[in-house]
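User: Is it possible to get a 3D structure for a protein together with its bound compound? The compound here is flavin-adenine dinucleotide. I've pasted both below.
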Amino acid sequence: MTTPTPPTAAGTTAGGTSTGTPVTLVVLGGTNRLRRADRELLVLAGTLGATHVVVPDAPDDALLDELAAHAVDAVHTLEGGPGDRLTTPVVALAEAAARETGAHVLLLASTPEAKDVAARLGVRLGAGVVTDVVALDADLVATKSVLAGSWTTRCRATSAVLVATVRPNSVELPAGAAAGGTGTATAGAQRPRVRAHAVEDTVPAARVVARAELPASGRPALDEARVVVAGGRGTGGDFGPLEELADALGGAIGASRAAVDAGWIGPEAQVGQTGRTVSPQLYVSCGISGAVQQRAGMQSAGTIVAVNKDEQAPVLEIADLGIVGDLRTVLPQAVEHLRALRG
Ligand SMILES: Cc1cc2nc3c(=O)[nH]c(=O)nc-3n(C[C@H](O)[C@H](O)[C@H](O)COP(=O)(O)OP(=O)(O)OC[C@H]3O[C@@H](n4cnc5c(N)ncnc54)[C@H](O)[C@@H]3O)c2cc1C
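Assistant: Yes, that's possible. Here is the predicted structure of the complex:
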């Protein structure tokens, strides 16, 4: 096996900046729609130097306009698109873009798919990989939570290149940006140039044989929701009261593994060590005891509210507000109160 070589300094190649400004690459998924988590990466990248974006599908005009408003200089895309392979085309494209631009930082969202990409990029570029970052300073010191969320650490990669996955809801968006705008006066900004890479991806990776759209719930995606209402075994399988509260708060539904294992809700809702890691502003834990594996996925939430009928439940040790009571009584009261507040 050969030792990977990091990209060389920025500003000297066709895809780099002419000014020598360090390039940050934001690696997006295969969609032409920016999610909130993507916008957070773009805002963060803007604090670190020039921003280039990696997106496997050819970007449409709407995406280019939105990227222009975020002052993105260039979009790196794959000639012919990503095809039917999982992950590896994006890795090959991001590697090519990093080498061409001499990028010193690659940013991705902290999703399971993106972490797969990040790990592969770390090997190919000889880069340090830091996952679950909640803050990144201009001198590239990253803040992250470790050991099931019980410690917050600060670290810096000793390699020339840093690959960082950033937890959604870690970066404050300018007013208006969360809804799809940028929150900045950037109308008419120049569109980024598009650089199509002809990259041969020879890795024998898994292939996509079929795709099915998940039925739309009308709620935000769990990964990037500002509010998560999560239920456990204490729901007894009835998530109705939780859905009403989630809808009143504009939130997503999460679950403990016990609720998933019972078949009450799909595995995509599981929060925790072997599920999703979420960092919402508000996490409402309902009928969940608060095992360490559950905490691993939610402890970095801004505010934790726990509803549990057992005053000894461990979740109450980490809750900012604990409500001891039956969730079937407490949640409808909360919904009623919220509705009354809104008139
Ligand atoms: C390797 C490994 C990985 C794991 N990964 C995960 C993971 O990713 N996510 C995860 O969640 N777990 C995970 N687990 C499981 C974890 O250890 C716990 O078993 C699980 O989180 C318990 O789920 P629970 O809190 O819903 O159920 P329980 O522990 O049974 O707690 C139910 C709670 O509901 C309360 N309650 C009951 N009725 C009511 C009511 N009417 N109103 C209000 N409160 C009520 C009870 O007082 C209790 O506190 C993992 C375990 C292992 C070994």
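The chain has a mean pLDDT of 88. The domain at 222-341 is CATH 3.40.50.1220 (Rossmann fold).
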